[in-house]
Amino acid sequence: MTADFRPHIVMLCTGNAARSVMGALMLRDRSDEFRVTGAGTHAIEGLPMSLRVRGALLTHDLEDRRHLSHQLSDDDVASAAVIVAFAPEHVAYVRRQHPTGAAKTATVHRLIAELSNGADALADRVNALDLANIAVDPSEEVLDPAGGDEAVFIACANEINVMIDQLLPLLRT
């Protein structure tokens, strides 16, 4: 197997069942410049995405029939240039369970607001944000659609779609 030297982006939500699935697939669809992994803070390994997530993604002409849920691992954290969280509790989880990843973990809202684009490597630009020491505001959450009907999942997909459009240029060098 050939080594993959592209910057590794980890999309993180609770169960790797909705938000991180949507974000990872949308980012992969827009660019092959990155290695993108979806993961959860409390995922049950190996579950397929729900029909509501699949339906929400189809509204954006996206489909991934091979997705299986994945728990955030030490390897994910070690190899990530940035861990994109969808809620403050995901940032808190990384700080508690994977402290070596704290300096490269932020909510998608925070990254859109504060990550600079430029010639420096993504990992260097993320490191400059001093993320391990920043208080995360509750307003930085992308609401979890779990338990909602199809319209809630579509609204979540629409919100994440806009965010990926805003985030992608900032991830590039």
Number of strands: 4
Biggest beta sheet summary: 4 strands, parallel
> Strand portion, in percent?
5-15%
**Helix content range:** 40-55%
- Distance from first to last alpha carbon: 26 Å
From the alpha carbons, calculate the radius of gyration and give it in angstroms.
Answer: 15 Å
The structural class is alpha/beta
The strand order across the widest sheet is: 2-1-3-4
Q: Can you tell me the overall shape?
A: globular
Number of helices: 7
Mean of the pLDDT scores? 96
Write the H/E string, N to C.
EHEHHEHEHHH
Write the layout of secondary structure elements.
Blueprint (H helix, E strand, L loop, with lengths): L7 E6 L5 H12 L4 E6 L10 H8 L15 H6 E6 L2 H10 L7 E3 H7 L7 H6 L22 H22 L2
Parallel strand pairs: 1-2, 1-3, 3-4
Question: What can you tell me about this protein's structure?
Answer:
With 173 residues, the protein is an alpha/beta fold. It has helices at residues 19-30, 51-58, 74-79, 88-97, 108-114, 122-127, 150-171; strands at residues 8-13, 35-40, 80-85, 105-107. A 4-stranded parallel beta sheet has the order 2-1-3-4, sandwiched between helices.
Short description:
The protein has 173 residues and is α/β, with parallel strands linked by helices.
Question: Which features characterize this protein?
Answer:
alpha/beta, four-stranded parallel β-sheet, 12% strand
